[in-house]
Amino acid sequence: MLEKPEMGRFSVDLIVANNRDVVNLGDGHNVLEHVKHVMVSGVVDSGAARLVLPQCIVDELQLKVDGEMTVRFADNRRAKRQIVNNVWLELLGRHSVFTAVVEPARDDALIGAIVLEELDLLVDCGTQTLYPREPDSILTEIE
Fold first, then answer.
1. I want to staple 42 with a disulfide (CB 3.0 to 4.6 A). Which of 60, 83, 94, 109 is the partner?
2. Residue 42: which residues within 8 A CB-CB, separation 6 or more?
């Protein structure tokens, strides 16, 4: 019997890099042609807040640990996890820089609301897809 995927949770592919490498590249160069990056499968979770990356991706990209935070799992367990900064992330052709929680036990990334908001991506739970609110640019509401 096939399990029905949870509403608001589905997989997408995203690209991550170390933003220090992106900054050192300089203007006018294509990041994906000149900077070490990793394509990783990520679970979009409309109920999660942050970006979470597996330890192996953090190690491969040499992302700098910038402290720790308390995380709460779906079963209400709590734990301390490291956080890394300067995570350059591209999803659906849009990119920005994020802080991420490091999860040693994960094989994939977790994409929460902060990433979705920053990239102005909407979740369609019925079709299990992401799409941009505005196709040509990120729309930011300021009032």
1. 109
2. 11, 12, 13, 14, 91, 108, 109, 110, 111
Helix, strand or coil, per DSSP, at residue 54? strand
CA distances from residue 129 to 3, 59, 109, 117 in whole angstroms, order as listed: 18, 29, 16, 15
Domain 10-120: homologous superfamily in CATH? Acid Proteases (2.40.70.10)
Total residues belonging to the chain: 143
Note the pLDDT tens digit of each residue in 21-48: 999 887 777 888 889 999 999 999 988 9
Amino acid at 141: E
Residue 24: both structure tokens together: 């050192």
What does the block give as tokens for 130? Answer: 């992401």
Provide the token pair at 91. Answer: 């999803």
pLDDT tens for each residue of 114-137: 999 999 999 988 888 899 999 888
